[in-house]
Hints:
Blueprint: H1 10-15, H2 20-27, H3 44-76, E1 79-81, E2 84-86, H4 89-100, H5 119-132, H6 134-141, H7 144-152, H8 155-161, H9 163-168, E3 172-175, E4 191-195, E5 200-211, E6 217-223, E7 234-240, E8 246-251, E9 262-275, H10 281-318, E10 320-321, E11 324-325, H11 330-366, H12 374-413, H13 424-431, H14 441-453, H15 456-467, H16 473-494, H17 499-528, H18 533-555, H19 561-576
Parallel strand pairs: 3-6
Antiparallel strand pairs: 1-2, 4-5, 5-9, 6-7, 7-9, 8-9, 10-11
Amino acid sequence: MDNFFTDTPDFKFHLEHPIVKKIVKLKERNFTESEMYDYAPLNHEDAIDTYEKILEIVGDICANTISSNAESVDVEGPHIENNEVVYAKGTTADYKALYDAGLIGMSLPRKYDGLNFPLLPYVMAAEMVARADAGFANIWGLQDCAETIYEFGSEEQKEKYLPRFNRDGATAAMVLTEPDAGSDLQSVKLKATFDEKENTWKLNGVKRFITNGDADISLVLARSEEGTTDARGLSMFIYDRNDHAVEVRHLEKKLGIKGSPTCELVFKDAPAELVGKERFGLIKYVMALMNSARLGVGAQSVGIADAAYREALKYAEERAQFGKVIVKFPAVYEMITNMKIRIDALRSLLYETTRFVDISKVYEDVMNDRPLEKEERMEMKHYMKLSNVFTPLIKLTASEACNKIAYDSLQIHGGTGFMQDFPIERIYRDARITSIYEGTTQLQAVAAIKGVTTSVFLEQIRSYDAEVSEENQILKEKLQEMTSKYEETSTKVIETHNQELLDFHSRRLVEMAGNIIMGYLLVLNAQRDEKFSKSAKLYVNLVSSENNEMYDYINNFEIENLELYKLEEEKVLEEQL
């Protein structure tokens, strides 16, 4: 029987990373929960064994249920009946399979009926689900909202809402976007007013492009401060679908991820509960929620890329032309090998980022029980700093790479890939959204550029460099040369003190840093497991040429050329006027 966990040995490899011991120990409160719950692990080995057994169940469901239903879900899609979204039959079956296995609310504490998993195994599950069906990954993955309620909600809200995820299989939604507030969330207009008579908040307005918008439990961003127009007037609210005060006005017809309903919602005096404090909705709570979502899209992108790669390899090994299977042709095996080494690199960055986020979050959670020691506070601060720039980095690099890998996989399929006879046609369409939602690639570059300007990327690169052994000296020297050029280029741009120029080159600088980081991660992987040696060597050679191209472009770029780009825009505007 196929299994998406056992056919990907990289999962076990990344669970064995040295820092995972610290994460698990903190998450399990030094394994004291075994005294309260008979299913809680007794030690680290017991915890890892539990993660692997659960992930094997996820892998089985992904391989034999979700992926089997993906094509029919893509054709059928959801629809509206009596103001409610009805999923495709396959989607309902998928969710039931995961619910029956107790896999909703994986990372929630046991006191709220969760599995108390760190993010690492949860993100691995998300990658597998996305490989099976990227659209369904959105529905299942929105249990991230439960984490936000756990982090910022009151104890009463936690007890009311969190057990519903595992107990009832509750679905969730992030209700942020509006017709005039896409990426610019500080422009949100949905109004929240406090009804003194009923002692509750009421929501009024329209939200658009809401993934899984008719969910059981929704986190809604709304303007609670009258007379404001910026982020300081926004608060976050919980809306319970059981109140039946929201109209599902429309389902979007989309290019891809068709099984995931994208809704237009009309709130009409919808009762809601304030999360945390007023005015912190965007600047604190949504930022935390979006970081989780971006990590989720990173996992989704790696899952899609892996699906596309496997389809390409399978087709190339079976399709014969000119007397031999096409995988034997250099033009084809180069493409397939490059897919594989990029996936190895992306997966390494994904789980490195996840570990950074994990240790930051477990320290924050531990603070609810006891004060942190000085060394722990410093460590938490360090990993939070890394998390803040690595999260947009993985979202940017993984989403762009997954689009390229899906494109190349379809190319390998030739004309048949353009037809609906093979899964790659659906995978190709599903991939396109990853670089758009939860913050476009361009916005991720703006967020990740802080890793360049504050030298966080450079410091981490040097940290990796110190871990490279003598046996990898040749690759180390290549990476050091790439680092030197990156440092030279970034310094040159930063020292112009020209924000517009920095914004213009931000994506190139971030991608240069990302290529170096993933190169080092593969080399360090190879030191723990020889199977990564090939990927490390080929990847460093590949991205060295990519970085050289960006290095030459930035160094030869004249600031005056910025005006040439803008003049074209102005000319078009003048013609329109």
